[in-house]
Amino acid sequence: MRTSGEVSKLHFLLFPFMAHGHMIPTLDMAKLFATKGAKSTILTTSLNAKLFFEKPIKSFNQDNPGLEDITIQILHFPCTELGLPDGCENTDFIFSTPNLNIGDLNQKFLLAMKYFKEPLEQLLETMRPDCLVGNMFFPWATKVAEKFGVPRLVFHGSGFFSLCASHCIRLPKNVASSSEPFVIPDLPGDIVITGEQVIEKEEESVVGRFMKEIRDSERDSFGVLVNSFYELEPAYSDYFKSFVAKRAWHIGPLSLGNRKFEEKAERGKKASIDEHECLKWLDSKKCDSVIYMAFGTMSSFNNEQLTEIAAGLDMSGHDFVWVVNKKGSQVVEKEDWLPEGFEEKTKGKGLIIRGWAPQVLILDHQAIGGFLTHCGWNSLLEGVASGLPMVTWPVGAEQFYNEKLVTQVLKTGVSVGVKKMMQVVGDFISREKVERAVREVMVGEERRKRAKELAEMAKNAVKEGGSSDLELDRLMEELMLVKLQKEKV
Ligand code: UDP
Fold it and tell me: Which tens digits make up the pLDDT trace of 120-137?
């Protein structure tokens, strides 16, 4: 029993969207909260608990006996009743099961999240956490939390720049075609983009209406939690707080909380390569000499594009690590996409990882000198935290905005030249374009210097007294005040 005057710990309930790009930073967040003396419960389905959360949480709790435990709360998700295939509990299922209509299923999966509204209500009634960190794709969670007086924070998983760009974007009526560049109105920095590269188009579509619900729920919530750091995008952090959400806290880069080898090596999934072998291979390379190429968890290129990437890499002459995550199977069986004799020709020069790569471990290695990325926010921020200049190859979602941040604001990247959003499969890029961008990014000393400075800033932001560390303290103080007020009543 608590004695009078003793204050209990803050208790966060974290509810991530069931995709690796959301579950990974959520787990990082729970660990961060634990280091600040707060309890966290992660809400997820049984399959995701097993596949993703149980092992790293068990290790974390064992390795940190002085910290508050992280726990898991399971919610049932009746896939088949909701019209989804059996076992479809995360987007990985959608993107790695052969013969599925990915676009349709992805949208159906997104909309099926509404199912969780009632179970969440029942849980909040009994659990009464001090804060609900709910993913952006659960807009109904704001009202549910309000009913029980629980402050609801929205977690988008993306940075300030793309959130601001998405807020400002209005497709100008006077441009001749959707491939004509225009400046995003009101957004600081005169950022140039084309209509073909933005997702916010059909206000009246199912997705358009859903996006509006998300914006409304954000406006009515306690605030927004952002995986970023102030020094990376100060103008956009300020803009966001002045004009978009008013209340936001930046607490990243969250990936930097993973300090132990095991945490980095098995972040997300068991790697498809022996981590020690991989590091040994990198150890044999000169500092800043290898380009790392990866496209996140949802993009998947066709054979023609993979062949072109292989040829472009070969033509660039640079050593490389290339993660190939082909839709339909984790391990690529029939390799008719590799040009004849490619692996013999690039033996010792290149490493192809088929499936899951220990990404942060690789990015942190001194031999890596550039990152060719699809510009998913987690990857991009991991690249920033590792001080890497980047080749930007956006495919869908908010990735084109992230590209503009790297190429037009930070000036640490070279665009490979993707013209339009294609979702999942990607716009076609020739071998010459791959060669040019890789060569350019690996030699640009100014770009590399700026990237290394940003990495220093990222590390300082999460140190004690750094901008993200202080921001988290401020958030926790506010939540503690709310908690104390409630306990007084
Ligand atoms: N990731 C990884 N190994 C892989 C593929 C992805 O560790 O082979 C991690 C990556 O480090 C990042 C996350 O998965 O943290 C992908 O998130 P991101 O936002 O970059 O892209 P998404 O998959 O959501 O498009």
Answer: 999 999 999 999 999 999
Cβ neighbors of 280 (< 8 A, separation 6 or more) are: none
User: Sign of dihedral through CA atoms 201, 206, 207, 213?
Assistant: positive
Query: For a pocket test of ligand 1, which of 23, 155, 364, 379 has the largest count of ligand atoms closer than 8 A to its C-beta?
Result: 379
SS3 label, residue 414: strand
Q: State how far the Cα of 10 lies from the Cα of 77, in Å rounded to an integer.
A: 28
Task: Count other Cβ atoms within 10 Å, centred on residue 414.
Answer: 23
Residue 131 and residue 12 in contact, taking contact as beta carbons nearer than 8 Å: yes
Q: Which atom of ligand 1 is nearest to the CA of 325?
A: 8
- Residue 418 buriedness (CB in 10 A; 0-12 / 13-18 / 19+): buried
Ligand 1 atom with minimal separation from the 157 CA: 19
* C-alpha to C-alpha distance for 41 and 15, rounded to whole angstroms: 9
Cα(250) to centroid(ligand 1), Å: 20
Does the C-beta of 91 come closer than 6 Å to ligand 1?
no
Give the predicted TM-score (pTM) of the model.
Answer: 0.95
On whether ipTM exceeds 0.85, the answer is yes
Q: Whose CA is nearest to atom 3 of ligand 1?
A: 357
| Cβ-based burial of 468 (10 A; exposed 0-12, middle 13-18, buried ≥19) | buried
Q: How far is the CA of 20 from the centre of ligand 1 (A)?
A: 7
Q: Determine if ligand 1 sits within 6 Å of the CB of residue 199.
A: no
